[in-house]
Design brief:
The chain is α/β, with parallel strands linked by helices and 293 residues long. The chain has eleven helices and eight strands. Helix 4 crosses helix 11, helix 5 crosses helix 11 and helix 8 packs across helix 10.
């Protein structure tokens, strides 16, 4: 299917429509059915976005209509630069589930930018040698072996974490600010963000700390090599136990900072419930902005 934009006709990516419908609360089965109907109806036909959205809205149940209208209105406001794009930031220590959650959310908000703090760390390694900044060339929960900064009241592990964060925070801020300037919806995820530290950038930024209980976090941390196949972590169970305790220290520190700074704490239990909860937060912002404009 093609949509018309002024004098131009361009292919339409149905994944963006699917994301909007899922964000409204429709079940995956309902979304697939509706999209299939639209594909069949408009096959080989050029339509405008307004015509497409009007048809979709007319086929939605009443309980979904208002949220769909709000999402479409927010999208229009972003195109006219009346409001900032959606910037959703998922924070948390290693193996808390944030990376997998971010994959689903890219589609939900039609994000054209996705930034992992691990990627930023890797880019910085290309610019700074291991002899200069050895704390950059290790996992966050190992950084304390090389450098520690911050209050003496904090544990060595947390002070090592802060040392690594400080190397990266300027580049992260600049990258997020660039997304806002471009008007691009973005998902940002990683451990290298102290909760509350991005509030000064823009009210467009929604920070969420992904916070599983210790038992769930432990299981996810210990199973990481088998689940993800990551090759840069130890296979030694005893060492991994020590590393988990260090990662959990960082997570507890992040939790305290989140509560102190008013960052939303997502008590992670399952991916399905977490996505639903995050969708609720995103919709809350969209409804508020759409209602005020």
């Amino acid at each position: 299917m093609h949509i018309t934009v002024g004098e131009y006709s361009i292919p339409y990516p149905f994944s963006t429509l699917e994301g909007k419908l899922v964000l409204c609360g429709l079940s995956p089965k309902h979304v697939q059915s509706l999209v299939f109907e639209i594909q069949s109806l408009f096959s080989g036909i050029e339509v405008s976005l307004d015509e497409l959205y009007q048809h979709i809205e007319s086929n939605l149940e009443r309980r979904f209509k208002q949220d769909f209208r709000s999402i479409v209105k927010y999208e229009r406001l972003c195109r006219t630069r009346s409001v900032h794009p959606l910037i959703v930031v998922l924070e948390g220590a290693s193996s808390t589930g944030k990376s997998m959650l971010s994959i689903s959310l890219v589609k939900s908000i039609t994000a054209t930018r996705m930034l992992s703090t691990d990627t930023v760390r890797q880019l910085l390694r290309a610019l700074m040698s291991k002899s200069e900044v050895p704390e950059l060339y290790c996992h966050t929960y190992q950084a304390y072996n090389y450098k520690q900064v911050g209050s003496d009241n904090l544990s060595p592990v947390v002070r090592g974490y802060i040392a690594q964060v400080q190397l990266m925070e300027r580049l992260l801020r600049e990258s997020i600010s660039r997304c806002i300037k471009e008007g691009a919806n973005a998902i940002v995820e990683g451990v290298h963000i102290i909760p509350g530290s991005l509030k000064r950038i823009s009210n467009a930024v929604t920070e969420i700390l992904v916070h599983p209980d210790k038992e769930t976090h432990h299981a996810m941390f210990m199973a990481k090599t088998k689940v993800s196949g990551l090759q840069t972590i130890s296979n030694d169970p005893t060492q991994r136990e020590r590393e988990f305790e260090a990662a959990r220290e960082i997570q507890e520190y992040m939790s305290k900072r989140a509560m102190k700074s008013g960052v939303y704490v997502l008590h992670f239990r399952s991916y399905e419930s977490a996505i639903k909860e995050i969708h609720g937060l995103i919709l809350q912002r969209i409804r508020s902005v759409a209602a005020s404009c």
